[in-house]
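worker-03 picked up job from queue 'complexes'. Input manifest follows; two sequence lines, order preserved.
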Amino acid sequence: MHIRVEVLSACMLLSAVPAAWANGGGAMEMPQANSREESPQDKAKERYNDGVREVRKADRFQDSAAQLVDPAKKERALHEARTRYSSSLAKFQEAVQLDANMHEAWNYVGYTSRKLGNYEAALAAYERALALKPGYPEALEYRGEAFLALNRIPDAQQAYLDLFATNRGLADKLLAAIKSWVATQRAAASGADPATVEELDKWVQERAQIASQTAALTREGSAAGWH
Amino acid sequence: MAKVACLAWCALALGGALAQEPQHADYVWRLPRGFPTPAVPADNPMSEAKVALGRRLFFERRLSVTGRSSCASCHDPARSFSDGRAVAVGATGAALPHSAMALVNVAYNISFGWTRLDVRSLEAQMLEPLLNDHPVELGLAGRQQSVCAQLAADPTYSENFAAAFPHAGVAVTFEHLVKAIAAFERTLISGRSAFDRYVFDGDHAALPEAAKRGMAVFFSREAGCAGCHSGFNFAGNWRDAQGETGKPSFASNGTSERAIRVPTLRNVALTAPYMHDGRFPTLEAVLDYYSSLGEHAQSRRGSRYDPRLPRAALSARQRTDLVAFLRSLTDEAFVSRFAGAGSP
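worker-03 finished. Artifact:
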């Protein structure tokens, strides 16, 4: 009961920070009720939509856990998040079984697997999504984060560059994730090789500078103007 | 703040949708990283055959009254399709009022020419060099029929036209000639400079330190360069498959009473002399000029002076660094792609 209230206020806070949410895509339109018998594709969409609802709840629990101080409450929120990531993963798995070409669902199989700590499965799912839809920015971003979790730094850097050329918003998100990877490694007693970490830190700083200098090169940046 | 949040949202919301835009028909653009898909007029779709024909016609000397000039006479690939003169000279020797513009990324232009706002397509622009007679450029006015007859009598051309316009009753027409050259011009896309390798490929050694310092100056508000030379083409607003980003970018940097279109700075090291009238022989001279504008920024306030222009003099170091940056915008592969083209 307690959690509910805190979660709600956390949600209100979070609504101002869209980047914190899952960005795999929203719900899909369903066919009219009076149309003929449901096809596997329609059923896949239904499972997918159920999964998306569930994954949003999971994200909220996870985000509120990050803000909670009391360890017991934090653990409860994390537990709720994990439960919902598992149940949404099951929905997305059903969706791709019904329709193996549904790249959005593969992307969420990746996302939820990653949230549950199963990085190899996540990578495999992103590969499927990207094979179905080359350059799919959301999958590129999620995959970049999975690479990070596996300490595959050059792959994460490449994912950043691929995103940078097509979607600056998601590229920024991945760069922030790389930056916090650096911070985590520095803090950890037995983190990655310090020289590698420092080199990556320099790289992050240079990329951040390039990104801010060249913001006016993009359509969005040029519309924002700077005078 | 609200604006920033909205931008972040839009980038997220639209990002996915943009990337899934299908390519125009079956034509495959080979675009540099970071470049949008060009807009193509519905009545002149791209095809490999049309581009190949247009490329040949671009260098075709029979397209002039004297038989000695072609588009390439004023738009030389080795100079990023400009001509090295202060002002261009037509087929019959008459001087034109302005210098020949570099043809770089013209597929993304909203308007065409240094001073014209009303010329809005490559097809429309081309009628000027082909048909103008005050002064003459190629001087084909009144000769369209006979030029087409000549080309139709040439077996390779008649084959090339038929391949490019397979559904037309008569393939070799003046309209098709214009469309083919325009299709070729849309492929003059240049975006593989050291700058691009640095920014888009993540090759952090691609730019020398001086160019990196110059880049910081270029994108600073104090120097103001990117206020006008903005966008991936350093030429202000553009048009792509998604539409136009705004009005054509015209501004005065003090070289003329009237506003002049902001030119691209890509390959600018290859296109001396500079400005619409070729008044500056070198990039150093251009930077000295911008620096003197900055030096007099105070006394110019309130006048026609564009507020984006430099707000203070540029130090000698800043000028050298800016030149290094401008040189890093040269795309060698673009130039060598056409090496030897047009020579018989």
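worker-03 released lock.
The radius of gyration of chain B is 21 Å.
The first helix of chain B runs from residue 2 to 19.
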